[in-house]
Specification:
Layout lengths: L2 E8 L5 E6 L14 E4 L17 E9 L4 E8 L1
């Protein structure tokens, strides 16, 4: 299946960004590292943020699987 979705993240400086999950195939019983790309929607259009993210990041939201199912995320990334 494929994973898609967006997560909200807040860094140590209080910056808020949206992290978009890279859509890549995950084979049954397989494991993958998902790349999360920061996107800033504050101007109404997606663009890279104008600031550097400072760890730790508090990340929350849901990722969904094509074909059904989802996973909730509420993690601190250091």
């Amino acid at each position: 299946g494929r994973v898609f979705g967006a997560l909200d993240a807040k860094d140590a400086a209080g910056h808020v960004v949206t992290l978009i999950a890279q859509q890549s195939a995950i084979l049954p019983k397989g494991r993958r590292v998902l790349r999360l790309t920061p996107v800033d929607y504050s101007a109404g259009e997606p663009k890279p943020p104008a600031f550097d993210l400072r760890p730790p990041l508090h990340v929350r939201g849901k990722l969904q699987f094509f074909g059904g199912g989802e996973i909730s995320i509420d993690q601190v990334v250091r």
